[in-house]
Amino acid sequence: MEINRLPKVLLIFLTLFLIQEVLINQINFLVAGFSLYLAFFMAWVIQDQRNSAVVTGFIAGLILDLSPTLDAPFGLWTLVLTSVSYLLSSNVRAALDAELSPLVMLSVAVLASSFALALFLLFGAILGQEVGSASYLFRSISGNALWSALLSPLYIPLAIKLYKVTLTARQR
Amino acid sequence: MATRGSNRSRLLWVSLLVTSLFIITLDLRGVSLLSSLRSGTQSVLAPVERLATRVFSPFGDFFSEVGNLGRSKEKIDKLEKENQELKSQIIFNENTLAQLESLKGVLDLAGKARYKTVSARVISKGGTGTFSETIVLDIGSNSGVRRDMTVIAASGLVGVVKSTTAASSIVLLMNDPSFRIGVRVAGKQDMGILLGQGDKSYSLQMLSARSAISVGDVLLARGSSGDRPFVPGVPVGRVSYVENTVGQLTKEGRVNGFVDLNSLSVVSVVLSAVAGDPGDALVPQAPRPAPTVTVFVTPSPSPEG
């Protein structure tokens, strides 16, 4: 990742974190909740080059770890998002067409955010965190997947647009 | 070239993973810098959350109607504006009345038990990515709130204070999967442990093999030493199902909580229990059955007869 992209990426994810904490978390969703931050991150990373994706994953994870209501060790989301971003950019991205269709981005955002939540739980359990009953976890992850799919027309175009904003003219 | 590029990516990835693991290790070893980062974030977020609650809480369901205003033509007359203002005012008043009602209820409960409390507004909730059921209150250590204090609403227990900053505090809700509380059955001395399940119902495990519980029994908090984290006597929930499996050492069951944790707006933090254990004084009154109206019909003689 070019150093001049870093402040823009940082600013975008900090703003998104603020929106998630201040607005989205206040909404009572019918089933579980919705992490706009995770869904947006996945839609962003799938467009990115491998090196930039990994650095973005690390930064986004560090920001998410700042969440005051989080009961997990600091750095756990950093570990999860760094891993997921590498997997997405190196394995999943390579198997997809160069031009990403909205449907592909939707599928990636839904599946990858569910995978990230599951990985977070797994690492948390290894580190001795209470993870709750299977039905609770299933409801949380599937609820998030449902909202990520339903609200994709809102955040996927935004992720595409903002991603392009951070690129230099030559990269575009 | 491609191999060199992918090797470089892998090296970057591994070094960032190692950094993450290093950060986790530091946090688990109790490095205060990392925990203060989170409380610092909470201090920064609290005023924004407070403002967002103030702005969005009364008008949350009103957005669709307000959105129509932008599409209106220039000819929107004064009457329509007044109408919108009045609608906003009504919604605002209804919201304020609902909060007032919650506040009155929680103060009634606290007054009956002679708990010394401080009231707070809920300004945010924990997100999906946290996998913990939490809320954020708009008061903190400046108002006397400390970690491990009981939080109550009008109908009973809400949770326990997990952490505080100067002007905000985070409460672990009683439906969090890690939540455990010692309870006793109202009117008896049978004790058990209530466990959060992440939803509206809770799991109950009685401590003694001879404990007798039945559907409809009310459970109260047993209280902790020094009243922290739990003051005694707070209504927790009502038994909805008792498991009668042969060979079970102790009885288990399901409990419905008294408080709807999804619609909290005003709660109280119990600073101390002035009069000690209130016993069963806070057990909610069972709803009175509506009187049955009996109508006697006397057939009148037919005009033909």
TrEMBL record, chain A:
Q: Name one GO biological process term.
A: regulation of cell shape
| Cellular component terms (Gene Ontology) | plasma membrane
Highest taxon of source: Bacteria
InterPro entries in the record? Cell_shape_determining_MreD (IPR007227)
Record field: transmembrane: 7-23, 29-46, 53-70, 76-96, 103-125, 145-163
Where it sits in the cell: the answer is: Cell membrane
**KW Transmembrane helix (keyword) present:** yes
Q: Does the keyword Membrane apply?
A: yes
Topology within the bilayer: Multi-pass membrane protein
The alphabetized UniProt keywords are: Cell membrane, Cell shape, Membrane, Transmembrane, Transmembrane helix
User: Which family, according to UniProt?
Assistant: Belongs to the MreD family.
Record-linked NCBIfam families: shape_MreD (TIGR03426)
The name under which this protein is listed is Uncharacterized protein
- Organism from which the protein derives: Actinobacteria bacterium BACL2 MAG-120820-bin50
Taxonomic path:
Bacteria, Bacillati, Actinomycetota, Actinomycetes, Actinomycetes incertae sedis
From TrEMBL, chain B:
Gene3D superfamilies per the UniProt record, alphabetical: Rod shape-determining protein MreC, domain 1, Rod shape-determining protein MreC, domain 2
Keyword annotations: Cell shape, Coiled coil
Rod shape-determining protein MreC beta-barrel core domain residues are 128-270
Q: Which example biological process does GO assign this protein?
A: regulation of cell shape
Q: Coiled-coil regions in this chain?
A: 69-103
Query: Any one cellular component term from GO for this entry?
Result: plasma membrane
Q: What is this protein's function per UniProt?
A: Involved in formation and maintenance of cell shape.
Query: What family name appears in the similarity comment?
Result: Belongs to the MreC family.
How is this protein named in the record?
Answer: Cell shape-determining protein MreC
What's the source species for this entry? Answer: Actinobacteria bacterium BACL2 MAG-120802-bin41
